[in-house]
Amino acid sequence: MKSIVIYYSQSGNTRQIAQALQRGIAQRTGQCDLARLKDIKPEEWVNYDLIGIGSPVWGSKPAPMVVDYVKSLPPAVKGKHAFFYCTHGTFPGRIIIRGVQPLQEKGLTVIGWKDWYCGCIPLGGHAKPWFTDGHPDAIDIAEAESFGTVMAAHSRKIADGATDIIPTLPSPEASDEFYGVDHPSVSAEMKVAKQPGKAPEPPPKMTLRINAEKCTGCGRCAEACFSNNIDASVFPPVFGTKCYECSFCERICPSGAIEIVMPNVPHSNPGSDLFRKTMPRILDIAEAKGRFRRLVREEDMDWDTPWAKIAGHPIIKEIP
């Protein structure tokens, strides 16, 4: 059985889980490849019997580049075994449904899924440290290795004819009961969508610009860009039109030369009332269910210092 674990990561958390999954599968089968989403072509999936694909959670959804990638898979992947995994902060929401369904629509046999709480990259409105910082820790990594071993064992059993171990995707209601509420932005979209004759407002458009006085021409922004949307062969680099608005280039820039302009989204930390009031309640429920282990005390969280000042540049130190 030939296997591979594929991941998209910015902070490195999803990569850490992917590496642990790879070790777990290899312990069972003796082989498992590992690849960034950017480095493996969709048509290469036909070379594998078991494929794991992982994404960070963006607003209770997989990263959009992961969804687009899965949608581009060729028909020949039909029947291949796959599992979906994700990393997230506080709001996993219906991420499992949204990550698994595109795989099933491509005809893949999805044999499992798993999520892990992980620390968050600094974002506007977030305190630092964050509620979930410290994850993944040794316990999370061991759990991921074990899950990888289980996926490999299940894949072999299913290949031999077992069908009773193929899981059924939870309903939206069951997902909400187990994983908790959706991210507020997603809930707002769904609420508007249910109102006849009322179209949801488009999200604010992000604009990127480069401060030539700060730019060193190092090219790390182009190296980090998933969609190869940055031309660093000229100075200053030029942005194309294939932007996923992921802000990775801004976070990886060592000199702070890339600036983001986005209406109504502060890059300072206002100590959001939504996060302060909602997050502890959501995590209390998850902790009571045994889904979350608290490693950060709320009294140690700094809501008043702008996250950009805490992080400095580059905000993300390496390209996972």
Layout of secondary structure:
Layout: E1 3-7, H1 13-29, E2 33-36, E3 50-58, E4 61-62, H2 64-71, E5 81-88, H3 95-105, E6 109-117, H4 138-159, H5 172-179, H6 184-193, E7 207-210, H7 220-224, E8 230-231, E9 238-239, H8 248-252, E10 258-261, H9 273-288, H10 307-311
Helix pairs in contact: 1-4
Could you explain the architecture of this structure?
It is built from 10 helices and 10 strands. The chain is α/β, with parallel strands linked by helices and 320 residues long. The longest helix is centred in the middle third of the chain and has 22 residues, at 138-159. Strand 5, helix 3 (95-105) and strand 6 form a beta-alpha-beta unit. The radius of gyration is 20 Å and the shape is globular. Residues 266-271 have low confidence and may be disordered. It has 2 domains: 3-179, Flavodoxin domain (Rossmann fold, 3-Layer(aba) Sandwich); 207-266 and 306-311, Alpha-Beta Plaits. The strands form 3 sheets. Strands 1, 2, 3, 4, 5 and 6 form a 6-stranded mixed sheet that branches. Strands 7-10 form a two-stranded antiparallel ribbon.
